[in-house]
Amino acid sequence: MDFVKKILHQISRKSEAVSQITFDEDYNVPDARPDVGRMIQKKGEVTIGDVQISEGKARVFGGLTFHLLYVSDGERRRICQLSGELPIDETIHLDGLTGGDKVCITWEVEDLNLHLINSRKLGVRAIVTLHAWIEELCDLAVPMEIRGESDVAVKRQEYRVVELAVQKKDVLRVKKELTIPSGKPELHEILWQDLEVRGLDLRSEEGRVSAQGELFVFCLYSDGEEDHPLQWVEQALPFQAEVECQGCISEMIPRIESTLGQTTLEIQPDSDGEERVLQAEAVLELDICLYQEETVSLLQDVYHPHRECIPKVQEETLESLLIRNSSKCRLTDKLQMRVPKNKILQICHSDGKIKIDEERIVENGIEVTGVVELRALYVVSDDEMPFYAAETAIPFRHTIEVPGIGPDCRYELQSSIDQLSTTMPDSSDIEAKVVLNLNALVFRRRKEMVMQYVEEKDRDPEELQKLPGITCYFVKPGDTLWDIAKKFYTTTDKIRELNELKTETLTPMQQLLVERV
Questions:
Q1: H/E run at residue 484
Q2: How far is CA 454 from CA 77, 156, 207, 308, in A?
Q3: Which end of the chain, N or C, is surrounded by fewer C-beta atoms within 10 Å?
Q4: Residues contacting residue 487 through CB under 8 Å, at least 6 positions apart
Q5: CA triple 116-121-122, angle to 5 deg
Q6: Dihedral angle at the C-alpha atoms of 224, 225, 226, 231, nearest 10 degrees?
Q7: Angle CA 177–109–373, to nearest 5
Q8: Alpha helix locations (H) across 144-217?
Q9: Sorted alphabetically, which CDD domains does this protein's record hold (predicted)?
Q10: Which phi and psi angles does 273 have, rounded to 5°?
Q11: How many CB atoms lie within 10 A of CB 349?
Q12: 477-480 contacts: CB < 8 A, separation 24 or more?
């Protein structure tokens, strides 16, 4: 028997591993930068340059880039910045990795610490965690029909399944311009910058993936005059953008991971030739997976009145969508001040990132535990050196409601900062309020015996002769017309016709006449 089969596309993780890199290095301040006196604020990110794949191993090349805002040492102190990079060359062992596999890598910088050895040398300590996994596309062929056979009766079972419809990687570029307010001086040198994307909403539409959100831009700058105070500007710039996505439709279920890649902030002249425009660009690296949900009617069993049919089955995993839930977690905390003796005059800028420590399935939900690492740059009542920074980590524990979740489920979790604000309840404290997006896409996985092929044999003539030509059968609990027809080598149509049945509904102890074909 020849099957008509449907191919269900699925994605799975073939193997995964975690590797930690510890940095404890000395870094010499470049000759072009002034001596370091007091450090104000730091940040760091990882750049993955190349991944070389061999049998069972992935060799990762890249770098840890760190940035420092500091006060120069000497008689005349001023605010300066420097950036440095430490190389990464790490081998990650992944079971089953071969040359044609696709390796995905994410990174996390933990415990970045810059300390002053002397005015020309810094100690750089950090832990970088690399998460690597192999994504594997699997095609599951399931039987839907039997081609070119007459007198074959089939038994079907309907399943609600979800399959991968579209998978691709793409890049979304967000470009915005920010004009310096007329009351502020022109731009001369950017000393510190932060570009963040918040409130990002990614949706599948006809032939495209649309994005909207806000690009948060912060810039601390000097106007080139030594006796003038430093200036800063901060603004949220709404944006809308899209990327082409062939085969995408609005009814699909999106799971789109976005990673903020390269960001740039450049000084540009305005229409009058004055340097009063900031051109901001952020690159979002998109990992697009779109799922489609449908009902399929799979063959469960077959029989032929004149031939013995033995279905050969194999256990397979079918996935269905349990729930797609978007949850918000609200947090409030106060930041520790480094200089309590000075009054806080103004908050310049605040930013944060989410670090998830644990996620686990609980009753009717997914419990997520972690911290939000916050930084705030602020001005105090010190005319000579007013800039300071504060850091804090706000712990959180939040349960995403998922009714019916259990050990037979798998889920994909996405987290992002939706809103972040810092206020001054008084002149000595900074209060932070954060709203987190914690979104879960949950699938139920069912083990089912899926028919692969049917072995056919001629029926034993002697055995057929022993069977009565007509039988009076009393229906048992759980019986169906199909089961009875198969047992007595007849057809469901023949049973309905002989017993004048209008429906296939049977009741226990119902009497049926069954005639062998």
A1: helix 481-487
A2: 85, 15, 41, 10
A3: C
A4: none
A5: 45
A6: -70
A7: 70
A8: none
A9: LysM
A10: 85, 0
A11: 22
A12: 477/508, 479/506, 480/504, 480/506
**Secondary structure (3-state) at 495:** helix
Please provide the size of the chain in residues. Answer: 517
Q: What is the pLDDT of residues 469-496, one digit of tens each?
A: 788 999 999 999 988 988 888 888 889 9
The pLDDT value given to residue 469: 79
CA angle 415, 132, 351 (to 5 degrees): 35
**Cα(296)–Cα(17) distance, integer angstroms:** 35
Per-residue pLDDT band for 435 (boundaries 50, 70, 90) equals very high
Tell me what pLDDT residue 92 has: 96
**Distances from the Cα of 496 to the Cαs of 372, 480, 481, 492, 493, in angstroms?**
67, 12, 8, 6, 5
Largest CA distance in the chain: 113
Angle at 16 between CA 14 and CA 22, to 5 degrees: 160
- The closest of 211, 306, 288, 192 to 248, measured between CA atoms, is 288
pLDDT band at 123 (very low <50, low <70, confident <90, very high): very high
At 245, list the tokens: 């996505």
Q: Is 383 left (phi over 0), alpha (psi -120 to 50) or beta?
A: alpha
Which alpha helices (DSSP H) does 330-453 contain, by range?
Answer: none
Return d(Cα 5, Cα 424) in angstroms, integer: 65
Residue 332 exposure: Cα atoms within 13 Å on the Cβ side: 4
* Separation of alpha carbons 374 and 39, rounded Å: 17
Contacts of 453 (CB under 8 A, 6+ apart): 1, 3, 312
Sorted by sequence, the CB contacts under 8 Å of residue 366 that are 6+ apart come out as: 359, 360, 399, 400, 402, 405, 411, 413, 440, 442
Q: How far apart are CA 490 and CA 503, in angstroms?
A: 18
CA-derived radius of gyration, the chain: 33
Residue-wise pLDDT for 231-258, tens only, equals 999 999 999 999 999 999 999 999 999 9
H/E element holding 465?
helix 461-466
Q: Which residues contact 341 (CB under 8 A, 6 or more apart)?
A: none
Q: Which residue matches tokens 């994504």?
A: 135
State the pTM of this model.
0.86
Strand partners, 128: 21, 109
pLDDT at position 282 over 60: yes
Does residue 437 contact residue 328 with C-beta atoms inside 8 Å?
Answer: yes
Choose between 163 and 337: higher pLDDT. 163
For residue range 287-327, what is the model confidence (pLDDT) as tens digits? 999 999 999 999 988 888 778 888 999 999 999 999 999 99
